[in-house]
């Protein structure tokens, strides 16, 4: 393709896209950008947003050890929940994509089923399971495996378990679609060329499902770091993540500037991590 | 290089036998086409030889070794897929090197062997391209290089030309034939195209409904089909069903249901039979001559196709015949009355199936 033709096509493509693009910009970007000036305004306790320009909210969030701990915790939670969903979800998705069982539609429904339940109900379900006198601890105690209950609520472990459960279906759904579309001939070709199942999986199947792994991981990561209800209920008032912190800043303290600054920091970190992982995946050969 | 032998190979899907007792053997360096209509089980046979499908019965021998229970990745066969099945996340060179790496070939040797294989299929210079940057023919060559570079015991080709356009297909046919002769590798070639089957191979096996109809050299298959199915599938011959009336030496007289009698050659028992008349053996002449078979006819359809012309003629008794004549002599139009003639030695008789 000549450079001139490519340029023209690009322009035409953009021209065709522009009406919906404009709509998306107005709907998604405009409210976000409206908060940007707020994040640079001072906050006067008892009065609200003051006049002037300040970087204090950003500076505080990025230097104060209290905030840094919450940012670190949120990112760690995002990464670990994503990895958990990937490790648990890939084999499940692989099975669902490849099974010829006539129960396949029902098994798919089973994966989606949790999504049909209200999030609050599911979260309370986890409280009932994970509490000190909950089902998990009672069972372990009855079996004589532990003396004192393991603390599973209001800490990292509890959030990890509950969020992984809640976001697993998203990972599985994305992966099933991608794995189902992998050409079987290509795997057969690898086998005829002397690759056993492990070599076929790691050299062919897994690299070819990388786009799906990436898409599912980004989805779960973004959902995890922005989740509010589950961390709120399972973390309690003291064990905070970014989203609950932002929520408190906005609605409890009415400190909109600090809340806005924290939101932008979260967004920036998420976008940075996503573009980093996309770049990595492309180098690993997912750009097909 | 080694020969291939199949013994009563069977594959069932439920109550249906997709492959129903196929036995055949192929000599060292031989080129065998497996041809038949879609659903006849030819691809299933190929995939069983490759090890991708497990047979329900029978044995597969490669070079005298029973490989029936050997897993795919240990059979050392080269398979070229209809879809090419190149690894989209690897370059051409990486695709070709894949099988060598799996065999633990030292890195330095891999490079020289990949270069040699790419030169063999005339793809040198494209080694660093991604498969999606290649044309269909180039992808096909890559797949071929990838299959051949590991020096397999057998080359299996699964409808390798069906995704190529007509011109490229002719080119690749000759290319593969040339390569096969150069490398001297025993080859099993699956196709639904009878022209391809005859043109490529030195042995042609015609399959129908999971069974082997006939296995013969292309010329013999065309000249002496063993069944009405083979006669029709290979070259779309005219089939005239009737009953044996009499014999004189090699010659058989067959009575058609319409009352007419046809003279043909061949060995056959009494009873129902089928006369096979090749399209190009029928002559369309203005007036009856002394030919063995001579029928008044009228042209129904005339189609000019360059080197040849295709006619459909209707005999007085209502029978329709396909006739092919050299294009240079195709000056008849629909409705013209002619005489359709052919010699008894140009027609054969087969059992009516």
Can you give keywords for this protein?
heterodimer; A: about 290 residues; mainly alpha; MetI-like fold; two-stranded antiparallel sheet; B: about 350 residues; alpha+beta; Rossmann fold; OB fold (Dihydrolipoamide Acetyltransferase, E2P); six-stranded mixed sheet; 8 helices; 20 strands; elongated
Task: Show the helix and strand layout.
The complex is a heterodimer of chains A (288) and B (353).
Chain A: H1 3-38, E1 43-44, E2 48-49, H2 56-63, H3 65-98, H4 104-116, H5 119-130, H6 135-142, H7 156-180, H8 184-192, H9 197-208, H10 210-226, H11 229-235, H12 242-251, H13 256-286
Chain B: E1 4-13, E2 16-26, E3 31-35, H1 42-50, E4 57-62, E5 65-66, E6 78-80, H2 92-102, H3 107-120, H4 136-148, E7 155-158, H5 166-183, E8 187-191, H6 194-200, E9 203-208, E10 211-216, H7 218-223, H8 228-233, E11 238-248, E12 251-255, E13 261-265, E14 272-277, E15 283-285, E16 293-305, E17 308-315, E18 320-326, E19 337-342, E20 347-351
Parallel strand pairs in B: 3-8, 3-9, 6-7, 7-8
Antiparallel strand pairs in B: 1-2, 1-4, 4-5, 9-10, 11-12, 11-14, 12-13, 14-20, 15-19, 16-17, 16-19, 17-18
Helix pairs in contact in B: 2-3, 2-4, 3-4
């Amino acid at each position: 393709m000549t450079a001139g033709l490519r340029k023209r096509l690009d322009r035409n493509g953009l021209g065709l896209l522009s009406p919906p693009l404009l709509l998306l910009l107005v709907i998604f970007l405009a409210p976000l950008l409206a908060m940007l000036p707020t994040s640079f305004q001072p906050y006067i306790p008892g009065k609200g947003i003051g006049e002037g320009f300040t970087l204090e909210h950003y500076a505080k969030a990025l230097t104060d050890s209290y905030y840094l701990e919450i940012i670190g915790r949120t990112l760690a939670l995002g990464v670990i929940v994503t990895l958990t969903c990937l490790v648990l979800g890939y084999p499940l998705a692989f099975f669902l994509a490849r099974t010829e069982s006539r129960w396949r539609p029902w098994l798919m429904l089973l994966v989606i089923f949790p999504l049909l339940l209200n999030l609050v109900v599911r979260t309370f379900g986890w409280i009932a399971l994970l509490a000190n006198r909950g089902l998990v601890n009672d069972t372990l105690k009855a079996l004589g495996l532990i003396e004192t209950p393991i603390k599973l609520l209001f800490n990292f472990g509890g959030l990890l378990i509950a969020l992984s459960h809640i976001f697993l279906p998203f990972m599985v759904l994305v992966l099933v679609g991608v794995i189902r579309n992998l050409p079987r001939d290509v795997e057969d070709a690898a086998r005829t060329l002397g690759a056993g199942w492990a070599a076929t999986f790691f050299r062919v199947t897994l690299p070819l499902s990388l786009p799906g792994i990436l898409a599912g991981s980004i989805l779960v990561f973004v959902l995890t770091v922005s989740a509010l209800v589950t961390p709120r209920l399972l973390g309690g008032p003291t064990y905070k993540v970014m989203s609950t912190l932002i929520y408190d800043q906005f609605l409890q303290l009415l400190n909109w500037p600090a809340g806005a600054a924290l939101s932008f920091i979260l967004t920036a970190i998420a976008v940075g991590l996503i573009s980093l992982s996309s770049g990595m995946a492309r180098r690993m050969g997912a750009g097909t | 290089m080694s020969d291939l032998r199949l013994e009563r190979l069977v594959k069932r899907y439920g109550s249906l036998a997709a492959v129903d007792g196929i036995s055949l053997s192929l000599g060292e360096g031989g080129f065998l086409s497996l041809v038949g209509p879609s659903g006849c089980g030819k691809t299933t046979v190929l995939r069983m030889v490759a090890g991708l499908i497990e047979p329900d019965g029978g044995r597969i021998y490669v070079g005298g070794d029973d490989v029936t229970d050997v897993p795919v990745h240990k059979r050392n066969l080269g398979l070229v897929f209809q879809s090419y099945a190149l690894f989209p996340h690897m370059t051409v060179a990486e695709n070709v090197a894949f099988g060598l790496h799996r065999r633990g070939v030292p890195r330095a040797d891999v490079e020289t062997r990949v270069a040699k294989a790419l030169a063999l299929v005339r793809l040198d210079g494209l080694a660093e391209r991604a498969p999606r940057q290649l044309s269909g023919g180039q992808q096909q060559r890559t797949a071929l290089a990838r299959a051949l570079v590991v020096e397999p015991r057998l080359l299996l080709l699964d409808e390798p030309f069906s995704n190529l356009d007509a011109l490229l297909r002719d080119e690749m046919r000759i290319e593969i034939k040339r390569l096969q002769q150069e490398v001297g590798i025993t080859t099993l070639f699956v196709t639904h195209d009878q022209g391809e089957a005859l043109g490529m191979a030195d042995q042609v096996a015609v399959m129908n409904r999971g069974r082997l109809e006939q296995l013969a050299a292309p010329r013999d298959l065309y000249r002496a089909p063993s069944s009405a199915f083979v006669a029709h599938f290979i070259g779309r011959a005219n089939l005239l069903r009737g009953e044996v009336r009499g014999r004189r030496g090699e010659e058989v007289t067959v009575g058609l249901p319409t009352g007419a009698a046809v003279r043909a050659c061949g060995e056959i028992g009494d009873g129902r039979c089928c006369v096979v008349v090749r399209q190009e053996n029928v002559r369309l002449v203005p007036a009856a001559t002394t030919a063995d078979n001579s029928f008044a006819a009228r042209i129904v359809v005339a189609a000019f196709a360059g080197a040849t012309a295709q006619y459909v003629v209707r005999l007085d008794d209502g029978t329709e015949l396909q006739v092919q004549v050299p294009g240079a002599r195709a000056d008849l139009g629909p409705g013209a009355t002619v005489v359709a003639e052919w010699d008894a030695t140009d027609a054969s008789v087969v059992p009516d199936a």
